[in-house]
Design brief:
By secondary structure, this protein is mostly helical. It has three domains: 2-52; 65-160, DNA polymerase, domain 1 (Orthogonal Bundle), CATH 1.10.150; 174-335, hpI Integrase, Chain A (Orthogonal Bundle), CATH 1.10.443. It is built from 14 helices and eight strands. Helix 2 (65-78) packs antiparallel against helix 3 (83-101) and helix 7 (174-182) packs across helix 10 (271-280). One of its GO terms (biological process) is DNA recombination. This is Site-specific recombinase XerD.
Length: 347
């Protein structure tokens, strides 16, 4: 199949004779001009050996996890996955998975090596933890497809660990949130107002990606860029109160991004200023930014908004997340549902 280039890396890709249905083998040959030279030599060797009927593909499993992970990220970029999705995978590789697998060859990793992830992701919402584990599993699936490992060891771990993380409890009320906004610094206050107006995911995946070019002033809506694929964008209607806030902030803006601080777009976190606002508001419960999105979903459902419409606003493809994580935590809603049905006459 010839020589393949991915980023700075050069590979020789070929099929093993008589291996019906088997994925092509991809041998790494190095980077830059030297990698290209080695790839050309190796490709010529394989071509000649096949013509003579003497070709036997080497079976080697000596790739390190970080090497394969980097290659996988390059593969995502080639497939034109969204910048946010690729950035999230890269962040998890460096922040979470490097510690577990940095100095291990892929063939040395066994299914029990994944056990620390149970505690590491136990505090996350089930959907978030599942997404993280799915991203890691995709790397090992890639390694298996490329014949870097004989079998994906994470499949066994996932099979024996029906992963359930603790659900994120709704620990604040709307009045609590209003007090936090009142005590927030200007940049955080606008960020919280934006979260409440849109229900977007806090942080770099959605909130910090919002740009002024995403705002449609005439239609009064904003485009939220997809977190995984470019086709996952969604449009959020905006109310008049928030539109007035946007107009004022647009006049003050110094960057292309809605959320900025001291003339620069915010890229990572506002956790410190949020914690200060929570403390100043006198909130004693453990609150994080994601609770604002949680509260947004709960309050819109409490206001009798259509379940599917709310799912679309939040960027959920199914209703499962809302029905299992959000709606059941609304105090009194189940009792209201029971009391709403007609009553039988007393005997």
């Amino acid at each position: 199949m010839g020589i393949v280039r991915q980023g700075e890396n050069w590979y020789v890709q070929y099929r093993i004779p008589n291996a019906v249905g088997k994925a092509p083998v991809k041998e790494a040959c190095g980077k830059g001009p030297e990698g290209k030279r080695k790839a050309e030599i190796r490709d010529a060797e394989i071509t000649l050996a096949k013509k003579k009927g003497e070709f036997n593909a080497p079976i080697t499993y000596d790739k390190y996890f970080m090497e394969v992970a980097k290659e996988y990220v390059e593969e995502l970029q080639i497939k034109k996955m969204s910048e946010a999705y690729v950035s999230n995978v890269r962040r998890l590789i460096n922040k979470d998975w490097r510690v577990l697998f940095k100095n291990k060859e892929m063939n040395q990793i066994i299914w029990t090596d994944f056990n620390p992830l149970r505690n590491k992701y136990a505090h996350l919402a089930e959907c978030t933890a599942g997404n993280y584990l799915g991203m890691l599993n995709a790397i090992f699936n890639y390694a298996e497809i490329m014949d870097y490992i004989p079998v994906n060891p994470m499949k066994k771990w996932l099979g024996q660990n029906k992963y359930k993380s603790s659900r994120r409890k709704l620990t604040i009320t709307f009045n609590d949130f209003a007090r936090i906004v009142e005590h927030a610094q200007p940049h955080l206050k606008f960020a919280l107002q934006t979260l409440w107006a849109t229900g977007v995911r806090p942080g770099p995946t959605e909130l910090f990606k919002l740009q002024w070019s995403d705002v449609n002033w005439e239609s009064k809506n904003i485009r939220v860029r997809g977190t995984k694929t470019e086709g996952a964008d969604r449009v959020i209607p905006l109310d008049d109160d928030y539109m007035d806030i946007l107009k004022q902030k647009k006049q003050e803006a110094k960057t292309d991004y809605l959320i900025e601080y001291r003339g620069k777009p915010i890229k990572r976190k506002v956790g410190k200023s949020f914690a200060q606002a929570v403390q100043a508001a006198g909130i004693k419960s453990n609150v994080c930014l994601y609770h604002v999105r949680h509260l947004y979903a709960s309050e819109t459902l409490k206001g009798k908004a259509d379940l599917r419409a709310v799912a679309g606003l939040l960027g959920h493809r199914s209703l499962k997340m809302l029905t299992e994580v959000y709606y059941h935590e609304l105090e009194g809603e189940r009792r209201k549902a029971i009391e709403a049905k007609p009553k039988l006459p007393k005997l």
